[in-house]
């Protein structure tokens, strides 16, 4: 059975795009308290099912597919620019395809303005009218208003007219940053991108016996299975190790591992993989908020996904990407890495930031381990010493040295030079990811 929370989310998702919703309306419709309704609406906002706009309310918006995440709705634009909706509120759920800066003559501007566009322009009321008739929404900068006739036209065409106090350059920068941030999110692999749905995997019920487990094991050759109740709630995991020396008639419920580690759809693949390695598990069940099993991911699924992601071009670069792009191997034998400190990697004092420095060391350590053919590794802990300030545009040389290596862990020492001057040292422990 679904929880009240899940039922409200399902109800919100079933509403037509563009519908306005409120806490009181949801509470009355679903017969729940206003507190429960409020929490569900906030979760719906996190899932990008609705968008809340000051002085307008909460509107059901189109849930964007992952490949189109870089597109924004007009409702999101209102929040980004702290805008006021002058007309066309019923069109706030629509998605914009591009934005156009209206710094040209009218005829030239209209060549670039088409249906689905957002025209960013000042107090040029004639331009507002032409843009609406072309199927575009309008964002007026400088805090200006528009003609009443344009507001009525926006209402009739269901195309928003938004006013913001920011100037055109600032608005364009804010929208571009929002799109860039979403491109970074697009690059992050989540469990929902790679999991095997429950319909395509083998599960066992807690009232079955070890005979059933062994039959499933023979049929699928899998060594582990999630265990569920008759309502599909996850209650345990059972593996080949659990059944060694046990009778066929024994109940699964008696030998399974109860309260197993599980992931959610929104858990990142990297986080899930790290947890699986750390806990020593090969199969991770995936559940929703009320504990109902949705599917599973295996350690092999995680490694394949991460290897594939490394080969994909990144459109939105994080600090980690910027650091990796500036690294190059200068000594294959001794494993020395050269690195240039760019302005994006500095702190408020103009020196290399702690985050960029730790990423540099972790990546240099990974290079050294790959050179020893030890595959992927995760930095577990580190101790860093800044001996001298490292200024912007410095060229650094990082020399990692392996001190001790076991089957699962590696201890490594680092020396960082700016030309011949020693500027930093570090000790780091890596955990090796088994294949």
From TrEMBL:
Pfam families per the UniProt record, alphabetical: 4HBT, CBS, DRTGG
UniProt-listed InterPro entries: CBS_dom, CBS_dom_sf, Diverse_CBS-Domain, DRTGG, HotDog_dom_sf, Ser_kin/Pase_Hpr-like_N_sf, Thioestr_dom, WH-like_DNA-bd_sf
SMART domains: CBS (SM00116)
Electron transport listed as a keyword: no
Gene3D superfamilies: CBS-domain, Hotdog Thioesterase, HprK N-terminal domain-like, Winged helix-like DNA-binding domain superfamily/Winged helix DNA-binding domain
Positions of the CBS domain: 197-254, 256-318
CDD domains, A to Z: CBS_pair_DRTGG_assoc, hot_dog
Keywords from the UniProt entry: CBS domain
Protein name: DRTGG domain-containing protein
């Amino acid at each position: 059975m679904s929880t009240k929370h899940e039922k409200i989310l399902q109800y919100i998702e079933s509403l037509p795009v563009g519908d306005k919703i409120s806490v009181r309306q949801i509470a009355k419709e679903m017969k729940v308290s206003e507190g429960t309704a409020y929490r569900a609406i906030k979760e719906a906002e996190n899932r990008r099912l609705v968008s809340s706009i000051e002085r307008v309310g909460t509107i059901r918006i189109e849930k964007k597919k992952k490949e189109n995440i870089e597109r924004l709705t007009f409702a999101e634009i209102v929040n980004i620019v702290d805008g006021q909706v002058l007309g066309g509120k019923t069109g706030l759920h629509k998605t914009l395809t591009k934005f156009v800066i209206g710094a040209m003559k009218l005829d030239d501007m209209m060549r670039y303005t088409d249906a689905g566009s957002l025209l960013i322009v000042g107090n040029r009321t004639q331009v507002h009218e032409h843009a609406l008739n072309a199927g575009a929404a309008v964002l007026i900068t400088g805090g200006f208003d528009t003609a009443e006739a344009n507001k009525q036209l926006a209402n009739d065409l269901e195309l928003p007219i938004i006013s913001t106090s920011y100037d055109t350059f600032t608005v364009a920068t804010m929208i571009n940053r929002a799109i860039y941030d979403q491109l970074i999110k697009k690059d992050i692999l989540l469990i929902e991108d790679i999991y095997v749905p429950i319909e395509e995997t083998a599960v066992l019920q807690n009232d079955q016996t070890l005979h059933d487990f062994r039959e499933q094991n023979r049929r699928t050759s899998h060594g582990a299975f999630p265990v569920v109740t008759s309502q599909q709630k996850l209650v345990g995991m059972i593996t080949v190790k659990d059944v060694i020396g046990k009778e066929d008639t024994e109940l699964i419920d008696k030998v399974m591992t109860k309260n197993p580690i599980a992931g959610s759809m929104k858990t990142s693949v990297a986080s899930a993989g790290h947890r699986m390695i750390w806990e020593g598990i090969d199969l991770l069940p995936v559940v929703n908020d009320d504990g109902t099993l949705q599917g599973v991911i295996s350690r092999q699924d995680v490694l394949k996904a991460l290897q594939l992601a490394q080969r994909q071009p990144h459109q939105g670069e994080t600090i980690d990407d910027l650091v990796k792009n500036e690294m190059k191997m200068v000594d294959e034998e001794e494993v020395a890495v050269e690195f240039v400190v760019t302005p994006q990697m500095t702190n408020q004092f103009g020196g290399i930031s702690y985050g960029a420095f730790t990423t540099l060391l972790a990546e240099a350590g990974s290079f050294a381990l790959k050179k020893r053919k030890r595959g992927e590794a995760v930095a577990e802990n580190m101790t860093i010493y800044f001996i001298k300030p490292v200024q912007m545009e410095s060229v650094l040389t990082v020399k990692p040295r392996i001190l001790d290596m076991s089957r699962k862990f590696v201890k490594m020492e680092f020396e960082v030079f700016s030309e011949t001057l020693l500027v930093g040292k570090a000790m780091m422990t890596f955990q090796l990811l088994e294949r």
